[in-house]
């Protein structure tokens, strides 16, 4: 019962933030819903491992980030098995789902850069928090963030020029 | 930090509040007096603000369907978890002794139950007396009137 109450409180307080983070990572509502759903099922299962006094958001973002990476790996494997031709899935995805330059630029970033730029600039997490969420040292966070922002600047310029 | 101009990485770290205190203060002082670095800082800040504005504009509520699905999935897991535990508990090594114990309990319980509702005993003398009285009233005559019941001792 305590487990259920923990879940309900977590969903009530952080459900929206989790869903929006998942949405920004994936770029579409269906995947964001699946990711959020699976993340809270994990929260329910692993609620006893949550340490009171630590940031629940960092914890749930770590779960979401890991689930997203797993999903991308699964899709990549499936994609390579199903279509051996050299089409870039991310380009197809961007063309099919997004039109706004910032969305396009974010979607065109490699996933490991996208998650860091979202955590640093949108969620305003510290480098240390980001390191804990994505599971890498602060130096890697810093270098990925700088690469991501450099890429974003170029991509934004490109999409701004090409958009009507 | 570079003596002349900070790198773009340092400017980004400054914007994110990630420089050590001394470097942060030095950067602050440098930006106040360097137009080109201040320009780069403003460009980096614009990028950050664009990302935040984009996120705010696209912010959405958690769909109620997601909450419903989470609750349903957890209810399913609870049920299947219980069945799983039950199934794993039904190992042949455990089943036979458990079945034997249940059979013993049932047998003992049934015996006790039977004992509790056993019919009241009837004295055998009652049947003997009954037979004797019937025998005295000409059982083969259809006209015979029923005689008063007498005990076996009285008929002798």
How would you sum up this structure, described in words?
The complex is a heterodimer of chains A (164) and B (156). With 164 residues, chain A is an all-alpha fold. Chain A contains 8 helices and no strands. Chain A has helices at 2-26, 29-45, 56-82, 89-97, 101-108, 111-122, 127-134, 138-162. In chain A, helix 1 runs antiparallel to helix 2 (29-45), helix 2 packs across helix 3 and helix 6 crosses helix 8. The longest helix of chain A is centred in the middle third of the chain and has 27 residues, at 56-82. Mean pLDDT of chain A is 87; it is low at 84-98. By secondary structure, chain B is mainly α. In chain B, 71% of the residues lie in helices and 0% in strands. Chain B is built from 7 helices and no strands. In chain B, helix 1 (8-15) packs across helix 3 and helix 2 crosses helix 3. Chain B is rod-shaped, with a radius of gyration of 51 Å. The model of chain B has no long low-confidence stretch (mean pLDDT 80). The A-B interface holds A 4, 7, 11, 15-16, 18-20, 23-24, 29, 33, 36-37, 40-41, 44-45, 100, 102-103, 106, 117-118, 120-122, 126-127, 142, 145-146, 149, 152-153, 156 and B 8-9, 12-13, 16-18, 44, 47-48, 50-52, 54-55, 58-63, 65-67, 69-70, 73-74, 77.
Query: Treating each run of at least 4 consecutive H or I residues as one helix, how many helices of chain B?
Result: 7
Please report the total strand number of chain A as a whole number: 0
The helicity of chain B comes to over 70%
Helical residue percent of chain A?
Answer: over 70%
Catalogue the unreliable spans of chain A. Answer: 84-98
Alpha carbon gyration radius of chain A: 17 Å
| Biggest sheet record of chain A | none
Q: Ends of chain A: how far apart?
A: 55 Å
Helix count of chain A, per DSSP? 8
What is the string of SSEs of chain B from the N terminus onward?
HHHHHHH
Oligomer: heterodimer
Largest interface: A-B, 36 and 29 residues
Quote the distance from N terminus to C terminus of chain B: 137 Å
């Amino acid at each position: 019962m305590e487990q259920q109450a923990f879940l309900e409180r977590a969903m009530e307080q952080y459900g929206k933030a989790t869903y929006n983070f998942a949405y920004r990572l994936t770029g579409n509502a269906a995947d964001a819903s699946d990711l959020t759903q699976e993340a809270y099922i994990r929260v329910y299962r692993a609620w006893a491992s949550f340490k009171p006094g630590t940031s629940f958001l960092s914890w749930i973002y770590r779960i979401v980030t890991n689930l997203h990476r797993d999903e991308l790996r699964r899709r990549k494997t499936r994609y390579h098995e199903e279509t051996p031709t050299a089409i870039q899935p991310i380009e197809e995805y961007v063309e099919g789902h997004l039109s706004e330059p910032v969305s396009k630029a974010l979607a065109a970033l490699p996933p490991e850069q996208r998650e860091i730029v979202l955590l640093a600039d949108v969620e305003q997490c510290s480098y240390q928090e980001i390191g804990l969420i994505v599971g890498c040292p602060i130096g890697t966070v810093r270098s990925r963030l700088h690469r991501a922002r450099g890429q974003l600047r170029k991509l934004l310029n490109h999409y701004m020029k090409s958009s009507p | 930090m570079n003596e002349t101009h900070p790198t773009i990485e340092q400017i980004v770290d400054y914007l994110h509040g990630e420089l050590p205190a001394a470097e942060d203060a030095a950067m602050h002082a440098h930006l106040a007096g360097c137009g080109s670095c201040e320009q780069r800082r403003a460009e980096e800040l614009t990028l950050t603000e664009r990302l935040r504005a984009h996120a705010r504009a696209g912010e959405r509520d958690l769909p109620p369907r997601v909450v419903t699905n989470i609750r349903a999935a957890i209810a399913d897991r609870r049920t299947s978890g219980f069945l799983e535990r039950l199934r794993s508990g039904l190992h042949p090594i455990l089943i036979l002794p458990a079945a034997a114990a249940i059979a013993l309990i049932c047998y003992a319980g049934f015996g006790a139950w039977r004992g509790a509702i056993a019919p009241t005993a009837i004295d055998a003398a009652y049947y003997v007396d009954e037979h004797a009285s019937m025998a005295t009233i000409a059982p083969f005559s259809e006209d015979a009137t029923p005689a008063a019941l007498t005990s076996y001792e009285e008929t002798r």
